[in-house]
Write a sequence for this structure.
C-alpha cells in the first residue's frame, strides 16, 4: 500500500452488492453498490459514465 492508502484505508473486505448499496461507510466510487447493480443488470454501457459525485 502507498503511504496515502495506509493513512486513509481503515479496513478492506469483500462486500455484497446489497451491503455496498446500503452502507453508511465511505466507499469509492460513491454509490458503488448502485453502479455495480446497474452494470450487472444492463451490461457494459455504450459510452463511459461519470462515477464522480
Amino acid at each position: 500500500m502507498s503511504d496515502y492508502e495506509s493513512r486513509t484505508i481503515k479496513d478492506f473486505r469483500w462486500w455484497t452488492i446489497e451491503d455496498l448499496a446500503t452502507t453508511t461507510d465511505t466507499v469509492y466510487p460513491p454509490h458503488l453498490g448502485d453502479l455495480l447493480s446497474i452494470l450487472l443488470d444492463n451490461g457494459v454501457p455504450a459510452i463511459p459514465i461519470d462515477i464522480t459525485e
Remarks:
- The first helix runs from residue 3 to 8.
- The CA atoms of residues 5 and 42 lie 32 Å apart.
- The chain has a mean pLDDT of 89.
- The chain is about 45% helix and 0% strand.
